[in-house]
Amino acid sequence: MTDVTQNLHSLDFECGLSENEKQLLFLRARSNGLTLSACAHAAFFCKLLSSSRRRLLKENVTLRSKTSDLKVLSEDQILKVGILGGGHIGKQLALVLMENTGLKPSNINISSRRPETLDDFQKMGIGCFYDNQRLAAWSDVLFLCCLPTHLSQVCADIHSKLRQDCIVYSLVTAVPLNRLKQLLSHSSVLKPEYGFVGSDSVSIWASTGHVTAALKDPKVISAACPLGMSGRVSLPILSFIIPTHFL
């Protein structure tokens, strides 16, 4: 399909901005970079956790089995991922998990205040509803993608429903890790802290669209890697131990 707006600069987003506002355009690129990096790292975490869990479970079955045929892992043994929040980040994360982790749609649930806006995800087979407590009780890994203003109420709703072996992975900004643990009365909480190295923008982030499409570009993948730093997105080393009873 031809883009009829191509070369029509009067329709560009930047056209209506003042000179002072144009100086802040680098923030759009940074926002894209942070969203993409957060989703990519979350997907890597889930894939690593799921693969490790499957391997340990299969080894456990092998040790106990008296026959040559091993039982197929049941649905209850496959990693269950909950996404609390159906906004932009929650939707992008769900798509990335679907495409890059090997998880089935039935192993991903989303709780949103407006589940009616998630029809496309429901058609994929992802469970979409508005019941944060139900999501918390079901999830092995629970991603917090709600607004910071809603976080206190969300934590009050779900803290009593979290299983001891549930890992809470927060993508909510402006709330420190220790504060999150207090609000949730939960110790297995992971919260990556991102930052940009240098004051200049990185052009690769300005050109990225949907996260799933961007992650097919080797240059974007390289820029999102926290070890490479080519995208100038920093992710300090996190001290986090997966509880042994989870595995």
Topology:
Blueprint: H1 19-22, H2 26-64, E1 81-84, H3 88-100, E2 108-111, H4 119-124, E3 127-129, H5 132-138, E4 141-144, H6 151-158, E5 167-170, H7 177-184, E6 189-190, E7 195-196, H8 203-206, H9 211-214, H10 218-224, E8 233-234
Parallel strand pairs: 1-2, 1-4, 2-3, 4-5, 5-6
Antiparallel strand pairs: 7-8
InterPro entries: NAD(P)-bd_dom_sf, P5C_Rdtase_cat_N
Organism: Atractosteus spatula (Alligator gar)
Pfam family, one: F420_oxidored
Task: Write a brief caption for the model.
It is built from 10 helices and 8 strands.
Strand count: 8
Largest sheet: 6 strands, parallel
Whole-angstrom Rg: 20 Å
The unreliable regions are 66-72, 237-247
Assess the beta-strand content as a share of residues. Answer: 5-15%
Give the helix/strand class: alpha/beta
Query: Helix segment count?
Result: 10
Q: How are the strands of the largest sheet arranged?
A: 3-2-1-4-5-6
Instruction: Tell me the overall shape.
Output: globular
Helix content: 40-55%
Terminal Cα separation, in Å?
48 Å
Descriptive keywords:
disordered C terminus, 8 strands, alpha/beta, 10 helices
Description:
With 247 residues, the chain is an alpha/beta fold. 40% of the residues lie in helices and 10% in strands. It contains ten helices and eight strands. Helix 2 crosses helix 3. One of its GO terms (molecular function) is pyrroline-5-carboxylate reductase activity. Probable oxidoreductase. One of its GO terms (biological process) is L-proline biosynthetic process. This is NADP-dependent oxidoreductase domain-containing protein 1.
